[in-house]
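Sample entry copied in:
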Amino acid sequence: MTIAKPQARRGRPPKIEREHADTREVLLRCGMEILTEQGFAATGIDAVLKRVSVPKGSFYHYFDSKEAFGQAVLRRYADYFARKLDRWLLNETEPPLQRLRNFVEDAKTGMAKHQFRRGCLVGNLGQEIIVLPESFRNELEAVLLDWQRRLATCLRQAVSQRQINVDSDCEALAAYFWIGWEGAVLRARLVQDVRPLDVFMNGFLAGITR
C-alpha cells in the first residue's frame, strides 16, 4: 500500500524548531538588520516574523510589545557597536588617530557592502524620536554618551602622544565627532557614496591637528 505524503501548505513559511535563546537571538539579529534599513515606525512585527519564520504568537513569548522589542534591539546594537569601537579605538598597536581612521574605513566598507541600505540604528531612531515611545529618548542618549566616552579615551591618548594639542577638550571633541558622524552617515546613504564620510573625517582631523 502506498502512503501518500502530506502536501506542503502554500503561502506559509515552514516552522523552524529552535531553542528559546536561539529564537530570541534570531529575532534580535533580524531586528537590527531591518531597523538599520528602514527605522522603527516603518517596521511591522509581521515583516520581522516572516523573514525569520517565527509564529506571531511566539513573538510575545519573547517580547511584551513592539516597544520592548525595539529597545532590546537597540541594546543589542549598542553592545555590538561598543565592541567594534573597542576593537578599533583601543588597538594600541596603532597611533590613536590612525585607530580613528581605521574605524572610519571599516564603516565605509560596511556601508558599501550593504549598498548603503543600512545606516546607524541610533541615528535612524534619533531621526524618529518625535514619533517613538518616550522610553527611547533616554536609551538613545545613554548610547551616544557611551560612544563619546570611548572616543574621548582614544583622544586623550592622542594628546599624550602629542598627536593633538595638549589643551584639547577631548570630551567636547568626542561629542562633536558623533554629532557630525551621524550627519555624514545620513548623507552617505542619500548619495549612496562614502565621500561624505571622508569629507567629515578629513575636516575633523584638520580641526584637531592644527
